[in-house]
């Protein structure tokens, strides 16, 4: 027996505001049924003696520690800019503004 009916798929489509044809309802019902059966099978395999995990292998952080280093002052950063206006980099306009 199917885990999800055609009417339930139509209801989900309405809730999702999706326009679905009658042929798509049948197709989606079959696809969702396969998905739900697969999820049910995974639930059957899970055993009480196996703790839940988010990853199958342990993960370690590969990032280095943050180290504060001195940066450029705004004057140093703007000194090499081709065009500066009001203590900011000035760049060519790429989008036209609407009037």
UniProtKB/TrEMBL annotation:
Q: Name one Pfam family in it.
A: GatC
State which Enzyme Commission number(s) the record gives. 6.3.5.-
One GO-annotated biological process of the protein: glutaminyl-tRNAGln biosynthesis via transamidation
InterPro entries from the UniProt entry: Asp/Glu-ADT_sf_sub_c, GatC
What are this entry's molecular-function GO terms?
Answer: ATP binding; glutaminyl-tRNA synthase (glutamine-hydrolyzing) activity
Reaction(s) catalysed by this chain, per the record, are: L-aspartyl-tRNA(Asn) + L-glutamine + ATP + H2O = L-asparaginyl-tRNA(Asn) + L-glutamate + ADP + phosphate + 2 H(+); L-glutamyl-tRNA(Gln) + L-glutamine + ATP + H2O = L-glutaminyl-tRNA(Gln) + L-glutamate + ADP + phosphate + H(+)
**UniProt keywords, alphabetically:** ATP-binding, Ligase, Nucleotide-binding, Protein biosynthesis
Q: What is its quaternary makeup?
A: Heterotrimer of A, B and C subunits.
What family does the Swiss-Prot or TrEMBL record give for this protein?
Belongs to the GatC family.
Which HAMAP family does the protein's record reference?
GatC
Job of this protein? Allows the formation of correctly charged Asn-tRNA(Asn) or Gln-tRNA(Gln) through the transamidation of misacylated Asp-tRNA(Asn) or Glu-tRNA(Gln) in organisms which lack either or both of asparaginyl-tRNA or glutaminyl-tRNA synthetases. The reaction takes place in the presence of glutamine and ATP through an activated phospho-Asp-tRNA(Asn) or phospho-Glu-tRNA(Gln).
- The protein's name is Aspartyl/glutamyl-tRNA(Asn/Gln) amidotransferase subunit C
> Native species of this protein?
Virgisporangium aurantiacum
Its gene?
gatC
């Amino acid at each position: 027996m199917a885990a999800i009916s055609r009417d339930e798929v139509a209801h989900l489509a309405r809730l999702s505001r999706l326009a679905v044809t009658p042929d798509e309802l049948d197709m989606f019902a079959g696809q969702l049924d396969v998905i739900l059966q697969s999820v049910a099978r995974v639930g059957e395999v899970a055993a009480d003696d196996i703790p839940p995990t988010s990853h199958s292998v342990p993960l370690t952080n590969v990032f280095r520690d943050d180290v504060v280093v001195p940066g450029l002052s705004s004057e140093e950063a703007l000194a090499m800019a081709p065009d500066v206006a009001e203590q900011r980099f000035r760049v060519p306009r790429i989008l036209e503004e609407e009037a």
